[in-house]
Amino acid sequence: MSGMEGVDPVTLLPELVLALAAVGALLLGSWTPRRRQGRVRLCVVAALLVALAAAVAAAATGTGAASGGHTVDTITHAVRVVVLAGVLATVLLAADAFADHPRESEFHVLLLLAALGTMVLAGASDLLVLAVAYLLASIPLYALVGFAKDGTGTEAALKFYLLGALSGILLLTGTTLLLGAGGTTGYEGLAAALPGAPRALVAAGVIAVLAGLLFKAGGVPVHFWVPDVAEGAPAPVAAFVTTVPKIGALAALYRLGDQVLAGAALDWVLLAALLSAASMTLGNLGALLQTDARRLLGYSTVSQVGYLLMAVAAAGGQSAQPGLLFYLGAYLAANLGAFAVVCALRTRTLEDHAGLFRDRPWLALSLVVCLLGLVGTPPTAVFVGKLALFTAALDAGLGWLMVLAAVNTVASLFYYLRWILPLFRAPGEPPEAGDRPGAPDRWSTGVAVTAAAASLGLGIAAGPVLDLL
Amino acid sequence: MTASLWALVGLPAAAGAVLLVAGRRADPVAAPCAVATAGLTLVAAAVAAVSRPSTSAPMLAGIGAGAAVDGLSAVAVLTVATVAAAVVLFASAEMGSDQARGRFFGLMLLFTAAMLATVTATGLFTLLAAWEVMGALSYALIGYWWGETSRVRSATLAFVTTRTGDLGLYLAAGAALAGGSGALRLSELAALDGGWRDAAVAGVVLAALGKSAQLPFSFWLSHAMAGPTPVSALLHSATMVAAGGYLLLRIEPALAATAWAGPALVWVGAATALLLGAVAFHQTDLKQLLAASTCSQLGFVVLAAGAGSVGGGMLQFTAHAAAKSLLFLCAGTWLAARGTQELGGLRGAARGSPPAGAAFAVGALAVAGLPPLPLWTAKDEVLAAALHLGPLPYAAGLAASAVSAAYAARALAAVWAPPPAGEGGAPRRGSEHRSPPSEVLPPVALAAATVGLGVLVLPAAARWWRALLGASAEPGPAGWETAVSGLLAAVVLIITWRACARGRGEAVPGRRWAGGWLGLEAAANTLVARPVTALARALAALDDRVVAGGARAAAHATTSFSAGLADLDDRVLARGVRSCASGGRRAADLARDRGEAWADGAVRAVASGARILAGWALRPQTGLLHQYYVQAVVALVVLAAVVVLMR
After folding, report:
1. Ramachandran assignment for B339, one of left (phi > 0), alpha (psi -120 to 50 degrees), beta (any other)
2. CB contact under 8 A, B639 and A285
3. d(CA B317, CA B308)
4. Positive or negative torsion for Cα A214, A220, A223, A226
5. How large is the ipTM?
6. For residue A341, what are the domain limits?
7. Are the CB atoms for A274 and A357 separated by under 8 Å?
8. How many CB atoms lie under 10 A from the CB of residue A135?
9. If DSSP codes are grouped into helix, strand and coil, which group holds residue A320?
10. In terms of Cα–Cα distance, which of A289, A296, A283, A300 is closest to A222?
């Protein structure tokens, strides 16, 4: 490992802004009366905009750097922009749910730290940095999931934490094993050393590291926390936890596969393909019969991870990396949009949405766009992402995986439609309609409409965006 | 100056779209906005007519959306913009505040934009797009009073009939592509390979005849009169119906390149001019009379296109647009004042409002082909070209122009007759009904324009006109021809007027047949609508069987998917999931067995199989943490074993 003296702080500007914003928000929150913590939110939004601007500027100028176990390249640039957009949306969603909450500033601090961890996760090119980023991205989220201090939230937080502890230990174990096998934890060194290392040792190490990253991504077989957290955590937190961390985790998985394991003595492609197939199928089957909107979304994210893992299986292929990064952005817009509708309406079951189109046409249309986006209907962005990943899988000789993904996509239409169709129905009985509180939350509505528009816009402008990636 | 071209189409389109979107909220401001927009559009049209811009936007690969203003379209653009401005100004007075003005003026402006795009289109792509928009908007405008079922039915009938003809444009576009005109330019149609050229020309001719309400499509124009009068004044005089004739003039080189198109159009045009003229004569409703006369007058444009007289055809297009729209506007005024369109009820209407009466007289005399009004010149130009093809087309054309004079005289005699002494023709709003200036000005201005176009009778002006249209080589009429037709028109006019004034107009034979628009609608019903409906029923029955077959195939595919799924689960997941796989396979077997027997049951079985599978998929989610741990670790160990053993 080289020292940090060679690092140009400018290349890490977005990360630095986030870290400083987290510390600043903590201090500001401590000196602000409990009833007037809205100003913290303003500062956080400002900091996020600055970080976003810095990230876009860095991406536009093409600044690249690789030092100290952290790489700044196209993947890092794209993940930064997507993650920051996701955090911004979450902060706005929380503006409804946590306004005037006595611990609002803590919420923001934890959110910023988790986002920081996610961004570092995507840029890590050293297993130790990866482990640190994993911890930074995980620990704040345990607290966030239980933030409401209610029964379901606490249960979800405990499950989340214990599974996280298991996979964290596995990640560190894997790092140790690979260090033993390759003599280093840096990706470059490992890529050179692993082809000659004992196969069983490498396989065990890789699987252990994978366990940690799959936990962050919410993929099979460490996906058990996803539905519980999606259902139990406060709605904005559920939106964040099921969406943003997996962006960093999948980028890290892709980097690991592309830069380290492509030449190693194990069938990485098969491994990733199996995980992908298992995630998409199990997630879809799980979502099929759900009646709780958030639980359904939780299972649907598991299946989305399956599609995204196709890119990891096809790592190195021509359309794999642009497809993955585009899909991540598209998925963020669609998933956050769907969660935003749930946040805005404070609904629980699918039936609660009956007749929404008549009462709140914009919200209903946003939901339709986002859900059809999650299926991958043209002209939404996920369609383009899916197409790119299907192409990548086919190029990598994974025809069976592509067919499975296509079949899964068709099957997924079923449960999304189960949610969409009631929107256009008159509400069954008056008490059902009465379950929905009168006016939807303002900020969440805005986020939902914006996310739907972004999903469509990205899909229509897919050509130029893909060229950038 | 391509900006003028963009403004020409973009301005009314944008303003119309805004008005439409704003809906009833825009009602108070809709009329002034529309008048201003129509005025600006007229300015843009004038600039474009002088500067002759041309532009093209990339649309499909190799096919641009092109628009240009040349001599032909300069005339058309000016005509359309002028009539549109006059009609919109008139409508601002006519459409009361109780009407949905936002929708009305929005539709009118959008329609104007579509028509301007149609006449400036250089390629089939732009033409098709604008043509379709025009058709859809005409439906919305004719059915403007949608609360009355009969009007909506009329709108549908008009739309479906023109739509049938429109299919020809698709045929033409397909033939042009197949025949080697990749860019779909109208100017390239003449150079297509043999058979494809015939197909393309046939398609365009079909579309043009449908849109211009020529035989055998004429009956839709009768139904189109269900719309508000300003709609008729714009759509059914100067724009939509005239678009077909204009299109034929535009592709005249391609028509000339085929041996059959020219003669066919000459005969269709002459027959329409003659027969629909007779129909017009026998109408008792003023708007119906004007509608039939529109068909008849446009027959001359079609005849001109067939005979290769672009100069004459275009003059007929322009002069008829001005004259006919002013006639419709006057009819609208009287309809509002008297509450009737029946010729009997309109006795003396012209005497009640002298400006409108004078304008009506100018329009009717022009339609009659009286010298020196421009339609006289136009018909002579067209007839001169027809004479080159032989005496028979000439004679038919001459007879048609005599019929024009007859029905014009009938309308004139009705509105200028002394009002009856009784209360039969009593004005509805009281005899003191004062028209606002915006209602009087447009007909008068259009009448002035009609008279002004008479200048083209002068040889020097006629030469300039032909040069403008690039038709310098066309033969002009000989002196005796103009004298014959002028004299004929005058004589027929006077005789008919006197006869009608004495109440003998109804005695002319053929009343039953021509009064009912030649039975065209019944014929279309029997020959086209019923067979097509029957065919559709037969196809629907067939479709049911095919769909059932498709469902059966889908059932097969789904069962094999389930089997594959079960297989995969078996390999990947631990014991709990393995039993799930066998459950899935059992479900799949069940589904397969029944799927072969009977499709419906199979689909249901697959659904229930998927449900069972989904139930199994939820099994691992026990909610017990230690079981999560065990499952995760077992799965990871199995995965590691697979990876180690697989290679």
Report:
1. left
2. no
3. 15
4. positive
5. 0.86
6. 267-469
7. no
8. 16
9. helix
10. A283
- The answer to whether B413 touches B494, Cβ cutoff 8 Å, is no
Rounded to 5 degrees, what angle do the CA atoms B433, B438, B439 make? 45
Residues 6+ apart with CB under 8 A from A346: A235, A436, A437, A441
Does A331 map to a domain?
Answer: yes
Question: Stretch B433-440: mean pLDDT, rounded?
Answer: 76
Phi then psi dihedrals of residue B66, to 5 deg: -100, 145
Give the helix, strand, coil percentages of chain A, each rounded to 5: 80, 0, 20
Residue A34 has what DSSP assignment?
Answer: G
Question: What DSSP letter does each residue of A370-417 carry, written as one string?
Answer: HHHHHHT-TTSHHHHHHHHHHHHHHHTT-HHHHHHHHHHHHHHHHHHH
Residue found under tokens 């300039």: B464
Residue pairs between chains A and B whose CB atoms are closer than 8 Å: 94
Computed over every residue of chain B, the mean pLDDT equals: 84
pLDDT in tens, A427-452: 655 444 445 556 778 888 899 999 99
By the 8 A CB rule, do B347 and B420 touch? yes
The C-alpha atoms of residue A112 and residue A135 are separated, in whole angstroms, by 14
pLDDT band at B429 (very low <50, low <70, confident <90, very high): very low
A48 lies in a domain?
A: no
Task: With H, G, I as helix, E, B as strand and everything else as coil, classify residue A65.
Answer: strand
Strand partners, B123: B185
Classify residue A241: in a domain, yes or no. Answer: no
Q: Give yes or no for a contact between A119 and A136, defined as CB atoms under 8 angstroms apart.
A: no
Backbone angles phi, psi at A396, to 5 degrees: -85, 10
- Residue B561 near chain A (CB below 8 Å): yes
Residue in B571, B381, B409 with CA at minimum distance from that of residue B474: B381
DSSP lists the bridge partners of residue B67 as B55, B121
CA-to-CA distance for B309 and B469, rounded, in angstroms? 10
The answer to whether the CB atoms of B631 and A224 lie below 8 A apart is: yes
Q: How far is A160 from chain B (nearest CA, A)?
A: 10
- What's the per-residue H, E or C state across B57-97? EEEECCEEEEEECCHHHHHHHHHHHHHHHHHHHHHHHHCCC
At B97, phi and psi to the nearest 5?
-70, -10
At residue B424, what are phi and psi to the nearest 5 degrees? -55, -40
Is the pLDDT at B507 greater than 70, yes or no?
no
Can you list the alpha helix ranges (DSSP code H) found in A98-150?
104-123, 127-145
Strand partners, B63: B60
Q: How long is chain A?
A: 469
Q: Is A183 helix (H, G, I), strand (E, B) or coil?
A: coil
Structural domains counted in chain A: 1
B566, pLDDT greater than 90: no
Collect all residues of chain B within an 8 Å Cβ-Cβ radius of residue A200.
Answer: 644
* Min distance A414 CA to chain B CA atoms (Å): 10
3 state DSSP class of A124: strand
Half-sphere exposure of B585 (CA within 13 A, CB side): 12
**CA–CA gap between residue B105 and residue A449 (Å, rounded):** 32
Query: Does residue A399 form part of some domain?
Result: yes
Q: How many residues does chain B have?
A: 647
Q: Among all residues of chain A, which has the CA nearest to that of B610?
A: A285
Closest chain A residue to B620 measured between Cα atoms? A224
Q: Which helix (H) or strand (E) holds A70?
A: strand A70-72
Residues 111-140 of B with CB under 8 A from A: none
In the predicted structure, residue B160 carries a pLDDT above the cut 60: yes
In whole angstroms, give the CA distance from residue B117 to residue B119.
6
Q: Hey, CA dihedral for A357, A363, A364, A366, is it positive or negative?
A: positive
The owner of tokens 């080589």 is B473
pTM for the model stands at 0.57
